[in-house]
Write a structure and sequence with these properties.
four-stranded mixed β-sheet; 16% strand; 15 strands; single chain; Aldehyde Oxidoreductase, domain 3; 15 helices; thymidine phosphorylase activity; binds uracil
């Protein structure tokens, strides 16, 4: 059992270069193999928060009242563009959202990569700018930057020592950044299934429970939804293609599953923020969420009047026969999008904003022989063969509709 003092010391000393990489690697491996007690996870997370600044926006007022500061975090999915329509819905309902966000690594996309596909959009915001935006616009989406610097260093070491997939280390890593960003309530979307970080429901449930406890122990009421990530969300996987789909949702259309998850999370966030008497669905119908999105993008330098980038080369996959679209494996589509250039293999690599996959037929939809099922986009056509190989076997056309698993699996907290 690590004492509080030992945890505080090792996090501080490692962040400041006084503990050797070899020693920290050994400790991470011990945690990876043996786990941590709940008390150790709480202290480890608190020490990571203390390694940097913890934002406090409780003094900000709008119309004389404190801001209803609330945020969400997703453990990462395929086609998971939900933050993009969700934030404006919550803003239009009266919430204020300080969102520290990340760039993608490996098969999961990052919200910042998607938003940066909007010409001019910047997520490099100073603290003063974040405060001003929260007060005047109602949200700010910013790179985690100096929040929990211990996490950045420890995450890089986990990456090269194969200790990323440790539940206590994942939970403390995510929550250290989310608890430092200044939200007063948190809603987590914990993914379950083939395209998720953790594949099985018991593991995801345990991650959700651990993160909810960490939030509550640090004074930020936290709840989680467990949601299905076996199939991609919606019909677009990539960067700009996902922004385009989010704009459809904000215009009152868009795929049913994206709309349903946006509204389920918005309902939780609005409730967690203590806002009564609003229906998030109204904000999609009456255009108020779209207005908030335009204001947010404009505040961060983005220009929605410019066309979104689209990969200069296109390849299609067509239906081999008549029938019904079967299940689509989220991981196969994610890997295809990554091969096309939508994601990165190493931190800091550039991504192609116009790369991605459009899914023309979702599971259960009728299919005619020869029609286009998937469109693939990239600026580097030599990537097509690897992307097509990833898609191969990730879908099938059958005789009847596949089982339709529920999107919302459970609620924790
Ligand atoms: N996201 C994080 O921020 N940290 C992890 O450890 C895993 C996912």
């Amino acid at each position: 059992m690590l004492s509080d003092a030992a945890i505080d010391w090792v996090i501080d000393a490692y962040t400041n270069g006084r503990v050797a990489e070899e020693q920290m690697s050994a400790l991470l491996m011990a945690i990876f193999l043996r786990g941590m007690t709940p008390a150790e996870i709480v202290r480890w997370t608190a020490a990571m928060i203390t390694s940097g600044e913890r934002f406090d926006f409780t003094d900000l007022r709008r119309d004389g009242r404190p801001l209803a500061l609330v945020d969400k975090h997703s453990t990462g999915g395929v086609g998971d563009k939900i933050t993009i329509p969700l934030l404006p819905v919550v803003m239009a309902c009266g919430g204020a959202v300080p969102q520290a966000s990340g760039r993608g690594l490996g098969h999961t996309g990052g919200t910042l990569d998607k938003l940066e596909s909007i010409p001019g959009f910047s997520a490099e915001l100073s603290k003063d700018r974040i405060r001003q935006q929260l007060r005047d616009v109602g949200a700010a989406i910013f790179a985690a930057g100096e929040l929990a610097p211990a996490d950045r260093k420890i995450y890089a070491l986990r990456d090269i020592t194969s200790t990323v997939d440790s539940l206590p280390l994942i939970a403390s890593s995510i929550m250290s950044k989310k608890l430092a960003e200044g939200a007063r309530a948190l809603v987590l979307d914990v993914k379950v299934g083939r395209g998720a970080f953790l594949k099985t429901e018991p593991e995801s449930r345990e991650l959700a429970r651990t993160m909810v406890e960490l939030g509550n122990a640090n004074g930020v009421p936290t709840r989680a939804l467990l949601t299905d990530m076996n199939r991609p969300l919606g019909r677009a996987v990539g960067n700009a293609v996902e922004v385009a789909e989010s704009l459809e949702v904000l215009s009152g259309g868009g795929p049913d599953d994206v709309v349903a998850l946006t509204l389920a999370l918005a309902t939780e966030m609005v409730d967690a923020a203590g806002i009564d008497g609003v229906d998030p669905a109204d904000t999609l119908r009456d255009g108020s969420a779209m207005d908030r999105f335009r204001a947010l993008v404009a505040a961060q330098g983005g220009d929605l009047s410019q066309p979104l980038p689209v990969g200069s080369a296109r390849e299609t996959v067509t239906a081999p026969r008549d029938g019904v679209m079967g299940d689509i494996d989220a991981m196969g589509v994610a890997m295809a999008a990554w091969r096309l250039g939508a994601g990165r293999a190493q931190p800091g690599e550039p991504v192609q904003f116009g790369a991605g996959v459009r899914i023309h037929r979702r599971p259960g939809e009728p299919v005619s022989a020869g029609e286009t099922l998937f469109s693939l986009y990239t600026d580097t056509p030599d990537r097509f063969s690897a992307a097509l190989a990833e898609l191969d076997g990730a879908w099938a056309v059958g005789e009847s509709a596949p089982a339709d698993p529920p999107l919302l699996i459970d609620r924790v907290g």
